[in-house]
Structures are given as structure tokens and as C-alpha cells.
From TrEMBL:
Subcellular location: Cytoplasm
Name of a matching Pfam family: Trans_reg_C
Protein's gene: qseB_22
Cellular component annotations (GO), alphabetically ordered: cytosol; protein-DNA complex
InterPro entries: CheY-like_superfamily, OmpR/PhoB-type_DNA-bd, Sig_transdc_resp-reg_C-effctor, Sig_transdc_resp-reg_receiver, WalR-like, WH-like_DNA-bd_sf
GO MF entry, a single one: phosphorelay response regulator activity
Residue intervals of the OmpR/PhoB-type domain: 124-218
Keywords linked to the UniProt accession: Cytoplasm, DNA-binding, Phosphoprotein, Transcription, Transcription regulation, Two-component regulatory system
Chief location: cytoplasm
Protein name: Transcriptional regulatory protein QseB
Keyword DNA repair: no
Organism: mine drainage metagenome
A biological-process GO annotation: regulation of DNA-templated transcription
């Protein structure tokens, strides 16, 4: 798989290139927006990793140019933590996914594989409920298309409840899903995770049946 990396930070670019190579990708590294554009005009790529803050031509401009040519090439953008407006502009300009710097190389690689799978038409088994989408492969949860950060246990709990919509599960059943063998269960942990999930995803998503357990009711708007 050939990847175009457009990144002007020498240290970061070098690290990403080395990591992607090790993961089996062939990497072309362009260090400014113009060089990225030239590469796209002359070479064929499976996916692009695109920094937004670039000399000569910004990542957003490059992305607009690419989408203006009706290219459906998957694009993952890299953004700075404090540049929320850039991220929004990038997504609006047609980016498929994004990572906030600093990020983990393993996460970048997992996201690229997910993008490649999607662009190859192999749909991932997304779990959908109202405006919430959970991707078991990439471990991402989105609400109205926006990524929601969940802890590993919050994710597992939500996954479990979404897999068994309309089925009430007891706290003990859920604890078994959340904790591995020999792991100590924190007291009230299910209650705490449910509380966090409600705060992040909506107060009425998970229903408590006092003394019985928890359930996500069937999404009536979907049928
Ligand atoms: Ca940059």
C-alpha cells in the first residue's frame, strides 16, 4: 500500500515514515503542500496522511483541490490540539478521519487500515443507535458524526449494551464483561461508567432498572 505523507515537521515526518514503513506501507514523504500536490498529480496512492499547517499550500487547500477533482482518495488529517477550527475546516473540506498531535503511531496505523478497508468497500460492522455509531474495529464512537472520547471500560460497556439492545443486564453480568480474570473490580464501577456514558452521549441513552440492571432501549426512530 502506497501512502502519501505530507508533513513539514522533519522529526515527526521522519518518525511517521519509519513507523509506516515498518508496518508494511510504502511511503512517499512530501514536506510542503506544493510538493504534496505534485506527488498527487504524478503518482497513485491508496491513502494520504496530511498535516494541515504546511508551507506553500495549506493542508486544507490541498484537500479542497483534491476533492475538487472528484477524488475519493481517503485522507487522514493531522491537527494540533488547540486548532479545533482547523480540524472542523479539514473535515468540511473532505477529510475522512483525523488525529490530534501528539498521537500514537499504532493508532495512526490502525486508522489507516480502517480507512483502506472502508474505501475497498468492506464495510465495518458499525453498531448504530440513533445518532450514535460505535465501530468495534477501530474502537471509535461518534455522536452525530463527531468523535467522542471514551475510556476502554466505557467503550466495552457501551459495546456490550449496544450488542444486546432491549435486554436488561445486571450489574454483575456487566462487571464480568468489563474485568478480566483476576482483575479487581472497583466498587460501583458500572454505575460510574454508566454515569460517564450518559454525560458524554446523552442522559436517556442507558436506562436503569433499579435493583435489576441496565438496558439500552431499541431505537424506535430507526424502524
Ligand atoms: Ca505543520
Amino acid at each position: 500500500m502506497r501512502v502519501l505523507l505530507v508533513e513539514d515537521d522533519a522529526l515527526l515526518g521522519d518518525g511517521i515514515r519509519a513507523g509506516l514503513k515498518q508496518a508494511g506501507f510504502a511511503v512517499d514523504w512530501a514536506q510542503d503542500g506544493q510538493a504534496g500536490k505534485l506527488a498527487l498529480e504524478t503518482e497513485e496512492y491508496a491513502v494520504i496522511v496530511l498535516d494541515l499547517g504546511l508551507p506553500k499550500l495549506s493542508g486544507t487547500e490541498l484537500l479542497k483541490w483534491l476533492r475538487g477533482r472528484a477524488s475519493a482518495l481517503p485522507v487522514l488529517i493531522l491537527t494540533a490540539r488547540d486548532k479545533v477550527s482547523d480540524r472542523v475546516a479539514g473535515l468540511n473540506a473532505g477529510a475522512d478521519d483525523y488525529l490530534v498531535k501528539p498521537f500514537d503511531l499504532d493508532e495512526l496505523i490502525a486508522r489507516l487500515h480502517a480507512l483502506l478497508r472502508r474505501s475497498a468497500g468492506q464495510t465495518t460492522p458499525l453498531l448504530l443507535h440513533g445518532d450514535i455509531a460505535l465501530d468495534p474495529v477501530t474502537h471509535q464512537v461518534r455522536k452525530s458524526g463527531k468523535m467522542v472520547e471514551l475510556s476502554a471500560r466505557e467503550f466495552t460497556l457501551l459495546h456490550e449494551l449496544l450488542l444486546h439492545v432491549d435486554r436488561v443486564q445486571s450489574r454483575e453480568q456487566l462487571e464480568q464483561r468489563l474485568y478480566g480474570w483476576g482483575e479487581e473490580v472497583e466498587s460501583n464501577s458500572v454505575e460510574v461508567h454508566v454515569h460517564h456514558l450518559r454525560k458524554k452521549l446523552g442522559a436517556d441513552l442507558i436506562r436503569t432498572l433499579r435493583g435489576v440492571g441496565y438496558v439500552i432501549d431499541k431505537d424506535v426512530s430507526a424502524s
